[in-house]
């Protein structure tokens, strides 16, 4: 089984339990995602330009 398939399986199992992470955990994850996007903005922009022939808005 591929690494990606294992990740999907773990996510499905977690979803089916009906339990979710705490609000604090989810907020922290969103803040980390925002920080990552800001740090990688140039790479994201270059990827969009290369793959989709679109520039960052």
Automatic annotation (TrEMBL):
InterPro entries found in the cross-reference section: Ald_DH/histidinol_DH, Ald_DH_N
Protein name: Uncharacterized protein
Provenance organism: Cyprinus carpio
Domain of life (superkingdom): Eukaryota
An example Gene Ontology molecular-function term: oxidoreductase activity
């Amino acid at each position: 089984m591929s690494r990606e398939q294992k990740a999907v399986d773990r996510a499905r199992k977690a979803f089916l339990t009906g339990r979710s992470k705490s609000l604090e955990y989810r907020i922290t994850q969103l803040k980390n995602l925002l920080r990552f996007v800001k740090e990688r903005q140039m790479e994201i922009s270059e990827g969009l330009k290369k793959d989709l022939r679109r520039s960052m808005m």
